[in-house]
Design goal:
The chain is of the alpha+beta class. The chain is built from six helices and 20 strands. It has a five-stranded mixed β-barrel with strand order 1-2-3-5-4. The longest helix is centred in the middle third of the chain and has 19 residues.
Length: 385
């Protein structure tokens, strides 16, 4: 068989009016379940058979019911019955069936039994097979133990020496599924949508989130309302998150996300919490030539202008009296919610106008007497001589 024919066999098709060949992929409806047999409605008067063992979870419970739609592969015709499978490997099969699975792209079920040089040893239907490290998943897993003794679904990518050399790939199937989900995302995902995803990797500049078909990036600036020093302070790999889609560029394969936009904006309540003349504790977050920024809460910073610092003496830079990370007590001088600006002053700050108002002139008798003219001073000096 040619590769093109294998691809044709893998395409979905209806049964009515066509001759099924091993490897054909179709969608069928579950018509009945009896014991260990699931009967499939293939359309028209056709009926197929699927083993119920393929549709049980680890507790032995059926995960399907009558009326459900399932995707299956045609395996063979036995005793007048059309036999289908969701994957090969639920029971013992021979090399012929595995070779057919390789030729037709039918998934196989295997158990990872050990780690060997370059990858893992996997048992498929009683036969040994090999899966390289790079083919175990979409993302590299640091710990090989995460795969050991796990049952997984693979695709046979090489079949040689009559079944004595079988190479598997779980990644190939995951990529096929991912591409299908990606096409669904392209049709259904829009800017402004709120979606769920899983953190797949963390970088210095942000976190990538698997949306189920494509990855989106949460830049570090979109993690929280306040400044974030490290992405790891907010997220971890494998964490489930709800995010807002900010921008989509399918041509460049870029999806920009925001975690911050799912959180309450602290500026919505600043007028209640930070009224003028109210006193608050904060932390110096940044020093500039014109003043010091003080964090009152994550996402809300106020400015202590340099002219308000120094307790009356002139300073050239805020660093002369403050340091980043220093705890300070401040008073709100003014608030502009629309511009997201809060002007602060030290708690004990006294405006110069008030200083002038409070100034009391000295009593008249305390005024120093005049020493006279310059000529008088010269005459006094001559007399002393």
């Amino acid at each position: 068989m040619t590769q093109e024919l294998f691809a044709d066999l893998f395409q979905e098709k209806t049964v009515t009016g066509q001759q099924l060949r091993p490897g054909d992929k179709i969608e069928a409806i579950i018509a009945d379940i009896s014991g260990e047999n699931i009967f499939l409605d293939l359309g028209g008067k056709s009926e197929g058979l699927l083993s119920a063992a393929e549709c049980r979870n680890e507790n032995g419970e059926l995960t399907v019911s009558v009326g459900d739609k399932v995707t299956v592969f045609f395996l063979a015709q036995r005793g007048g019955e059309l036999v289908f499978t969701t994957r090969i490997g639920s029971g013992r099969v021979g090399s012929a069936e595995l070779e057919q699975a390789f030729a037709s792209g039918i998934p196989v079920k295997g158990k990872v039994v050990g780690e060997i040089k370059g990858g893992f040893q996997v048992t498929v239907a009683g036969q040994r097979a090999f899966c390289p490290y790079s083919q175990m998943g979409l993302h590299r897993t640091e710990s090989a133990e995460a795969y050991l003794n796990q049952e997984m679904v693979f695709k046979i990518i090489e079949f040689g020496k009559k079944g004595r050399n079988i190479i598997l790939s779980a990644r190939a199937l995951l990529e096929e599924e991912r591409e299908q989900r990606r096409q669904q995302l392209r049709e259904n995902l829009h800017e402004g949508d709120q979606v769920e995803g899983t953190v797949s990797s963390i970088r210095e500049f942000g976190a990538f989130v698997d949306l189920g078909g494509a990855d989106g990036l949460i830049p570090i600036s979109e993690l929280a309302w306040g400044q974030t020093a490290k992405v790891e302070d907010v997220l971890s790999i494998g964490q489930q998150v709800v995010v807002i889609v900010k921008k989509i560029d399918w041509d460049k394969e870029r999806i920009s996300l925001s975690l911050r936009d799912t959180l309450e904006n602290p500026w919505d309540r600043v007028e209640e919490k930070y009224a003028p003349d109210s006193v608050h504790n904060g932390t110096v977050s940044r020093l500039t030539a014109f003043g010091a920024f003080v964090t009152l809460e994550p996402g809300v910073d106020g400015l202590l202008h340099i002219s308000k610092l120094g307790s009356g003496r002139r300073i050239n830079h805020p660093r002369e009296v403050l340091a980043e990370g220093q705890a300070v007590t401040v008073k709100v001088d003014s608030l502009d919610k629309s511009q997201q600006r809060i002007s602060l002053v030290p708690e004990d700050y006294v405006p110069k106008v008030e200083e002038d108002k409070n100034w009391t002139p000295p009593p008249k008798d305390a005024t120093p007497k005049s020493m006279g003219t310059f000529a008088d001073l010269l005459n006094k000096a001559k007399k002393k001589r």
